[in-house]
Amino acid sequence: MLVTDGPPARSVGDLRLAYEVPAGTDPRDPRALPAPLYGKPSPGPAKVAVAADPGGQGIHPVVGAAVAAAADALRDAGYDVREVADVPRTAEALDAYGGITVTEFAPSRPVVRILLGPGGDRYIARAMERTPPASAGELVRLMGTWLGIRRSWAQFLDEYPLLLGPVFTEPPVEPGLESRDGAGRDRVAAGMRLLRGDQLRRRASRGRADGSGGRPPLRGPARGARLPRGPVPGRRPGGRGPLGVLTPADPRG
């Protein structure tokens, strides 16, 4: 129900090209919409909501500075940037996400745990300890909550077609922290709370790795409405963005 596929990218320009390939309807995916690739130009400057601390659980100053720098860049580019206190129903979204995902995952866990490996299986086990699979009646309630959250977000994004916030609320943590113990799992889950909620909202998002200016590599997403409404933030192919060159992705660390 919540598993989604999409192309990863390090810039809006690359993501735009990648999305043009699978865009459109297909009889094998009844959820696909015949949405246009590009929406009509906005009548005025596009509104951008900035939620630096989604859910109000705290954010590292370095990450907050990266979000602020991205907001300033959008403002300088002509966007109508607005600070918002929070995004809709964060706590409800995380509770519903946890309940639905473990319930969907539980029947296939004996097979999938082999593919995940020991670390991934420990992460799922701790998630299921915290949120056991739902009963039939509880699942119906969760699905109703899911619909309500999507409605709240549709209204929010009708006012703010774009949302800027942190993909992770801390600087990069050590690999394997999420599966080491319960505290590590909770820390990582809390840090990526905005990203986890995206699974419920089913909104397109784009993350930018920000390691310029001596900062560690961070990512700040720009999320959009369900259907395209004018241009999205980006830069011309081959151009240098206002925040510098993206931090290279080096698998060697």
Number of helices: 8
Order of helices and strands: HEHEHHHEHHHEE
Our Rg estimate from Cα atoms comes to 19 Å
Distance between the termini: 34 Å
What form results from the Cα inertia axes? globular
Structural class by helix and strand composition: alpha/beta
Spatially, the strands of the biggest sheet line up as 2-1-3-5-4
Estimate the helix proportion, in percent.
40-55%
Q: What's the number of extended β-strand segments?
A: 5
Mean pLDDT: 79
Q: How much β-strand is present in the residues? A: 5-15%
pLDDT < 50 runs, ≥5 residues: 216-220, 235-240
Q: What does the main sheet amount to?
A: 5 strands, mixed
Task: Give an overview of the whole structure.
The protein is an alpha/beta fold. 43% of the residues lie in helices and 9% in strands. The chain has eight helices and five strands, in the order H-E-H-E-H-H-H-E-H-H-H-E-E. It has helices at 12-20, 61-76, 90-105, 109-130, 136-159, 177-180, 182-191, 193-201; strands at 47-50, 80-83, 162-164, 205-210, 218-224. Strands 2-1-3-5-4 form a five-stranded mixed beta sheet, covered by helices on one side. Helix 3 crosses helix 5 (136-159) and helix 3 (90-105) packs across helix 8 (193-201). It is globular. Mean pLDDT is 79; it is low at 216-220 and 235-240.
Labels describing this entry:
single chain; 253 residues; alpha/beta; 5-stranded mixed sheet; 8 helices; 43% helix; 9% strand
Task: Provide a concise account of the structure shown.
It is built from 8 helices and 5 strands. By secondary structure, the protein is of the alpha/beta class. Helix 3 packs across helix 5 (136-159).
